[in-house]
Design goal:
Strands 1-2 form a two-stranded parallel sheet. The chain is 70% helix and 1% strand. The longest helix has 33 residues. It is globular, with a radius of gyration of 25 Å. The protein is built from 19 helices and 2 strands. The structure holds heme-as and copper (II) ion (CU). The site of copper (II) ion has 4 residues, from loops. Copper (II) ion (CU) binds next to loops.
Length: 592
C-alpha cells in the first residue's frame, strides 16, 4: 500500500477536499472576526459600534465551532472509513447530497448572521453561538442549523452503510480502529443532537416564525446544553483520532494499545451526554441535586482523556525510542520536532493538558461560581477547541493535503513556524484570559475596560492582561496567515513526486487483545441511552412543571433536592405497597 489517498480513492478525495475548503473558508472568516473583536474588547482599535460586537461574536463563534470544526471532521471521517475498510463509499451521489445539505445549511445560517451588519434588510441573528432565548434570531438562522445537522446525520448514515457492507464481506473481523472511532463518535452525535433538534424544531423556530408566543428559556437552555456539552467531544474525538492513529506514526512508532483506544471512545459515547447540566450550575431553575449528578458524571468523563494522555504519550515515547531516544526524559529530544505534523499535534496535546485542568475547575460546582460567565471560560475553550482541536486539525492538514491533492506541501518551515506561532499566541491570550476571569472580568462584553481601576497584585494589572490578550490575538492572526499561505502554495504547487503513502500507525497491542464486547455497539448505545434517561428525565420534568412547556408562567423557584424529590416519588409507592401488604395480611388473617 504505497499509494496516496487520491490514487486509491479519487472520487472520495474530491469530497474531502470540498469539505476541507469549506472548513478553511469558515476558519478565515472566523479568524477575521476574532481579531476584530479582540482589538475592540481590549480597546486597542475600534472601528465599529459596540452593538455590532455581538454580531461579530456570533459570527466568530458559529463559523469556528460549527463550520470550521465540523466540515473538517466530516472530511477526516470520510478518509478514516474508506482507508481503514479499504473500500469506496457505497454511493458517491449520496455523499455529495449530505455535503450539499451541510453547505446550504451553514450558508443560510451565515447569511442570517452577517445580514445583521446592514440595515438594508430586516434580518439579524446576533444571538451568540448558544442562541439562548429570550434572544431571538431570524428563522433562517435556525433553519440553516437544522439543515446542517441533518446533513451530518446523513453523513453518519453514509459511514454506517459502508461499514455494514464491509461487515457482510468480513463477518469475523474486528471493526478496524479508525472506523470504530467514527461509528462511536457518530452514535454519540445522534444522541446529542436530539436535544438541539427538539429545542429548535419544537420551540425556537416556531417562536421565531411567530407560531407560538413564548418559550420556556430554562427548558431551551437545558436542551441546548444536552447537545452543547457533547458537541465539544464531537470536535475533540476526531482530534483524538489523529493523536491515536497518525501521531504515533509520525513519531516513528506504533500505537501503544488498540484496546485502550476503544475503551476511550466507548467512554465518550456513554458519558458525553449526561453531563450537559455542568454548564448550568448557575441557572436558578434547576435543583442542586441534578447539578450534583452532572458534576459526578463530568468527573468520570475525565477518565477517557486521562487514558488518552497516557496512551498517546506512551506511543510517542515508543516512537522516540525507535529513533534512538534514551533516558527518562531524554527520549523527548529524539522526537521529530522539525516535522510540523508532529510538532503541531504535540503542542496541541500539551496545551490540551492545561485545558483539562481548567475544565476540572469549571466542573466543580462550587468553584464554578467563581469563574462562570467570566473571561476564564473563554480562556478554557481557546485551549480546548481553539488549540487542542484547531491546532491538531491544522497540523493534520499538512499531512492530509498531499494525500487529497496529490501535491507536495509547499513549505515545511512555514508550516513549522505556523504551529509554533499558534502555540505562543495562545499561551499569551488564554493565560491572560484565565487570569482576567479570576479578577471577575466578564465574557461576552464589548467594553470591559475597567478604566481607572487600579489592580495591584503579584499577577499584574488589568492593562497588562489586555495587552497580552491583544498580542496573543495578533500572533494567532499571523499564524492563520501563514496557514493560508501554505494552503494556497500547496494547491498551486506543481511538485507531486515522492509523496508519503496513505498509511496510519500499527499497534503494539492490537485488536486481538481487545475483548470482543468492546465492539458491541448495541450494548454501549443502550447504556448511553439509559444514562441519558437517568440524567435528564427528572430535570426536564421539573423544569416543565415549573416553567410550563412553552413558558412563561414561571412560578417562584422553590429549591428542590434530589433527596426530597426521590422521597416524593417513592412515597406513594411505599404507602401503596404498605397498604397492600396490610390488606393481604389482614385478608390472610381473616381467612384463617
Ligand atoms: Fe469545557 C465550558 C468542563 C473539555 C469546550 N468548554 C466550555 C465551553 C466550551 C468548552 C466551548 O464543567 C464554553 C461554552 C459556553 O460558551 O458557555 N470541559 C470541561 C471538562 C472537560 C472539558 C471537565 N471543553 C472541553 C473540550 C472542549 C471544551 C474538549 C472543546 C473541544 N467546560 C467544562 C465546564 C464548562 C465548560 C464545566 C462550563 C463553564 C461555565 O461555567 O460556563 C474535560 O473533558 C477535559 C479533560 C481533559 C484532560 C486533559 C488530558 C490531557 C491530554 C493531553 C495529552 C498530551 C499529549 C502531548 C498528547 C483531563 C489528553 C504530549 C506532548 C509531549 C511533548 C510529551
Ligand atoms: Cu461541557
Amino acid at each position: 500500500m504505497s499509494e496516496t489517498y487520491i490514487d486509491r480513492f479519487p472520487a472520495e478525495a474530491k469530497v474531502i477536499r470540498s469539505a476541507f475548503y469549506g472548513s478553511f473558508l469558515a476558519l478565515a472568516l472566523g479568524g477575521l472576526f476574532g481579531i476584530i473583536q479582540t482589538l475592540h474588547r481590549t480597546g486597542y482599535y475600534r472601528f465599529m459600534d459596540s452593538a455590532d460586537y455581538y454580531t461579530v461574536l456570533t459570527a466568530h463563534g458559529v463559523f469556528l465551532v460549527i463550520s470550521f470544526t465540523i466540515f473538517f471532521l466530516v472530511g477526516v471521517f470520510t478518509w478514516a472509513v474508506t482507508t481503514s475498510l479499504d473500500r469506496e463509499l457505497e454511493d458517491i451521489r449520496f455523499t455529495w447530497a449530505w455535503y450539499g445539505l451541510m453547505a446550504l445549511g451553514i450558508t443560510l445560517t451565515g447569511i442570517a448572521i452577517l445580514a445583521g451588519f446592514t440595515d438594508a434588510v430586516d434580518i439579524s441573528s446576533s444571538v451568540l453561538f448558544t442562541f439562548y432565548a429570550p434572544l431571538q434570531a431570524h428563522p433562517m438562522f435556525y433553519l440553516g442549523l437544522v439543515l446542517f445537522v441533518v446533513g451530518t446525520w446523513l453523513a453518519g448514515a453514509d459511514w454506517f452503510r459502508s461499514w455494514w457492507a464491509w461487515k457482510q464481506e468480513h463477518p469475523d473481523e474486528r471493526i478496524p480502529l479508525p472506523t470504530f472511532m467514527v461509528l462511536t463518535t457518530m452514535i454519540m452525535w445522534y444522541l446529542a443532537t436530539l436535544g438541539v433538534a427538539v429545542a429548535i424544531l419544537v420551540f425556537l423556530l416556531p417562536w421565531s416564525l411567530g407560531l407560538i408566543d413564548n418559550v420556556n428559556p430554562t427548558l431551551t437552555r437545558t436542551l441546548f446544553w444536552f447537545f452543547g456539552h457533547p458537541v465539544v467531544y464531537f470536535w475533540l474525538m476526531p482530534a483524538y483520532m489523529m493523536w491515536y492513529i497518525l501521531l504515533p506514526k509520525v513519531s516513528g512508532g506504533k500505537l501503544f494499545s488498540d484496546p485502550l483506544a476503544r475503551v476511550v471512545f466507548i467512554l465518550f459515547l456513554v458519558l458525553s451526554v449526561p453531563t450537559g447540566i455542568h454548564h448550568q450550575y448557575l441557572d436558578p431553575g434547576i435543583a442542586e441535586g441534578f447539578k450534583f449528578i452532572a458534576m459526578t458524571n463530568t468527573m468520570f468523563l475525565l477518565l477517557p482523556s486521562l487514558l488518552t494522555a497516557f496512551t498517546v504519550v506512551a506511543s510517542m515515547e515508543h516512537g522516540a525510542r525507535q529513533r534512538g531516544g534514551t533516558g527518562y526524559f531524554g527520549w523527548l529530544k529524539a522526537l521529530p520536532w522539525r516535522d510540523p505534523v508532529f510538532t503541531g499535534m504535540a503542542l496541541a496535546g500539551l496545551m490540551f493538558a492545561a485545558a483539562g485542568f481548567s475544565g476540572m475547575i469549571n466542573a466543580g460546582m462550587n468553584i464554578n461560581y467563581l469563574v462562570h460567565n467570566t473571561f476564564w471560560v473563554v480562556g478554557h475553550f481557546h485551549l480546548t477547541v481553539g488549540t487542542g482541536v484547531a491546532l491538531t486539525f491544522m497540523a493534520a492538514t499538512y499531512w492530509f493535503l498531499p494525500q487529497i491533492t496529490g501535491k507536495a506541501l509547499w513549505s515545511r518551515s512555514v508550516a513549522l513556524a505556523q504551529v509554533v506561532t499558534w502555540f505562543v499566541g495562545m499561551t499569551f491570550m488564554s493565560n491572560a484570559m484565565h487570569r482576567a476571569g479570576l479578577l471577575g472580568i466578564p465574557r461576552r462584553t464589548a467594553e470591559p475596560l475597567y478604566e481607572g481601576f487600579e489592580y495591584s497584585a503579584v499577577v499584574g494589572s488589568v492593562g497588562e492582561l489586555q495587552a497580552q490578550i491583544a498580542l496573543g490575538g495578533l500572533l494567532l492572526s499571523l499564524s492563520l496567515l501563514l496557514f493560508f499561505a501554505n494552503l494556497i502554495g500547496t494547491v498551486r504547487n506543481s511538485k507531486s513526486d515522492s509523496l508519503p503513502a496513505n498509511e496510519y500507525a500499527e499497534t503494539l497491542s492490537g485488536p486481538e487483545d481487545s475483548p470482543l464486547v468492546l465492539d458491541n455497539l448495541k450494548l454501549w448505545t443502550g447504556i448511553a441511552i439509559v444514562l441519558v434517561i437517568f440524567a435528564y428525565t427528572f430535570p426536564l420534568l421539573s423544569i416543565i412543571e415549573r416553567g410550563g412547556l412553552f413558558g412563561p408562567d414561571i412560578v417562584e423557584f422553590v429549591p428542590l433536592s434530589v433527596w426530597s424529590l426521590s422521597l416524593a416519588a417513592i412515597e406513594p409507592v411505599v404507602t401503596n405497597t404498605a397498604t397492600a401488604v396490610i390488606d393481604v395480611v389482614a385478608a390472610v388473617g381473616v381467612s384463617q
